[in-house]
């Protein structure tokens, strides 16, 4: 029993600092302010923060309690939804998740690159003046191609080796 | 003291949004002057007029304002105690309301939700959280078993951590400090304003 209490205290502190660490990175690159600024919805920052908090908690539960969270097979086994319906609903859910998560990660990757001043330094070194739009488009297309190759070739299965 | 010889203090804001095309000095700056008449007259100086279809953004330099004040009161001394350049924007009141606005909010909220849940899942996947929990359980308890206590308290800790980090539950603040995203938001706005002002003065579009 004492051991379990000890475990509980330790992993709770671990959770605290994991949250702090992950979110300091998220905040310093300033993604959400940028979204809010672009859409002129600066007044709703609190709401966005709520969604950041909610998203993290859901993601945490889904990944930590992986075995208990197999809600797809649970719904099918109990017969709450028929298989045909769930094929559509599930695919919609996957589509929405993939689309928005992809957008977030795409912005995140470029925001980190930008925070390290990669683009300004590079542009200055090679005396780059015009065509920044084309450069950005190329970055986006490169990411798209890279991502497609990654999934098509199954790079994730053997880690690029 | 003779008429028009008092000290005038101007404090400009870095960024002002106006809703009418005619902009007066009182809209973009605070004016302090010991003589009431002078203050009133200065406040009513028309500083800019937006054209109907023109650019809705303009950078105004303090030099323009000083010149305009000196045209009325050549003997007055003008002190600037605020920004030296101000960004002036004409906003359409109806533009930022309604359905489109709601869609935008929903969009940003969805990106924040799915994005962060993906981030934390990939982080857990990266560090291989289940195997850490299993190994740590054996390390502490001596033999393998159900590590649910670790998982549950970790999740509680993580939730508490972010709620404390962001400093609010729903709309209620825990302490009076601004939240991290609000702080970032202000920094971001300031940087955008500065960049716009710098661009305008580099291209010679500043009104001075």
Give an overview of the whole structure:
The complex is a heterodimer of chains A (161) and B (208). Chain A is mostly helical and 161 residues long. Chain A has eight helices and no strands. Chain B is α/β, with parallel strands linked by helices. Chain B has two domains: 7-90, eubacterium ventriosum atcc domain (eubacterium ventriosum atcc fold, Sandwich); 99-185, no CATH class. Chain B contains seven helices and ten strands. In chain B, the strands form four sheets. A three-stranded mixed beta sheet of chain B has the order 4-1-7. In chain B, strands 2-8-6 form a three-stranded mixed beta sheet. In chain B, strands 3-5 form a two-stranded antiparallel ribbon. The model of chain B has no long low-confidence stretch (mean pLDDT 81). Chains A and B meet through helix 1, helix 2, helix 3 and helix 5 of A and helix 4, helix 5, helix 6 and helix 7 of B.
Key structural traits:
heterodimer; A: 161 residues; mainly alpha; 8 helices; 0% strand; B: 208 residues; alpha/beta; eubacterium ventriosum atcc fold; 2 domains; three-stranded mixed beta sheet; 10 strands
